[in-house]
Amino acid sequence: MELIYINEDGVSVVLRQTKPFFLTKLEGVGRIRGTVRTFQAPDQDGAFFVSSSLDMRDIAIEGSILAQDEAEAYEYRRQLLRVFTPKRHGTLVYRQKRIACVVEEAGFSVSTAVRAPSFFFNLLCPSPFFESLEELRVELASWQEKFQFPLEIVMPGIELGVRQPSQIITINNIGDTASGCEIVFKALGAVGNPELMNLDTNEYIRLNVTMTNGQEIHAFTHFAGKKVVSITGSTETNAFPLLDVGSTFLQINPGGNTFRYDASSNLDMLEVTVYYRPQFLAV
Q1: What are the Cα distances from residue 79, in Å, to 6, 63, 73?
Q2: DSSP assignment letter at 73
Q3: How much is the mean pLDDT over the chain?
Q4: Which of 71, 106, 128 is the last residue of a domain?
């Protein structure tokens, strides 16, 4: 069992079942609690289900410092407190998954074993979901290279690249819940009104704009992190007003998701890439 905790300053510490930070207990990574909302009419037996939502996740970590003497134990104690500080947000990494959290409580037990004081940390995770360490990238529209080295060009020439022929692609989300994503529209020329549609739900995100050569528009659909920005060269501007009124901030649902990209003009000049992280209820 191994844990890695990284605070927002990039300072990290590894806890495992070995010196100097011997991990003895980990709770909260394999269970999740939810809040169920119901409505009960007068004289009704039972109740109507209204909705449910997941609570924040609490993670408890316990262990011992293994040192050669009291001075070394004290230094290790200071090292842990510099990393596990309530004044810094952090990320916990466990079994190739990560979760954002904040330290709610940090402490050390008083013991006669001065070379092996016990420590405990309580972490509060506002979002209960673990997510993959690596962000997945899916290209819906791009150019595929058709050459390799050594390269010999003969008359009347060779094909250096080919456009992917299909506008439709399936994204398989291996996670346990829907994930927000980053959708990148990139114009290789003038492109009118780019859009991406989920064919399973008929939801779409469309931008009412004629993109110029080299322009990128990034749409972020994460909960509490929704935004749309336009990037031209080194200039970044707010592109939220460009959203079509019927647009939806698309989510990548668990299982297969069928998407289609489109544009009102110059479709062949449009590249579309989706970035997302699968989310999990437990590890």
Answers
A1: 13, 15, 10
A2: H
A3: 87
A4: 128
Question: Which residues is 260 bridged to in the sheet?
Answer: 168, 197
List the alpha helices (DSSP H) in the chain: 70-83
Phi, psi of 175 (to 5 degrees): -75, 180
Instruction: Give the integer Cα–Cα distance in Å for 119 and 71.
Output: 16
> For the chain, how many structural domains are there in total?
2
Range of 58's domain?
Answer: 2-38+46-128
Which amino acid type is present at position 101?
A: C
**Beta partners for 207?**
243
Asked whether the predicted pLDDT for residue 51 surpasses 60, the reply is yes
The two three-digit tokens of residue 104, written as one number: 């709610």
pTM more than 0.85: no
Say yes or no: 152 and 89 in one domain: no
Name which of 63, 87, 67 is nearest 75 in CA terms. Answer: 67
- Position 138: which residue type? V
Closest CA to 219 of 239, 192, 189, 235: 239
CATH number of the domain enclosing 93: 2.40.30.200
User: Do 228 and 239 form a contact (C-beta atoms < 8 A)?
Assistant: yes
pLDDT per residue as tens digits for the range 195-243: 999 999 999 999 999 999 999 999 999 988 899 999 998 899 999 999 9
Enter the tokens of residue 59.
Answer: 């993670």
120 and 189 fall within a common domain: no
Distances in Å between the Cα of 39 and the Cα atoms of 34, 35, 51, 55, 113 are 17, 13, 10, 20, 55
Q: Are residues 79 and 20 in the same domain?
A: yes
Nearest to 125 by CA among 60, 80, 182, 180: 60
Q: Which of 93-107, 158-172, 207-221 has the lowest mean pLDDT?
A: 158-172
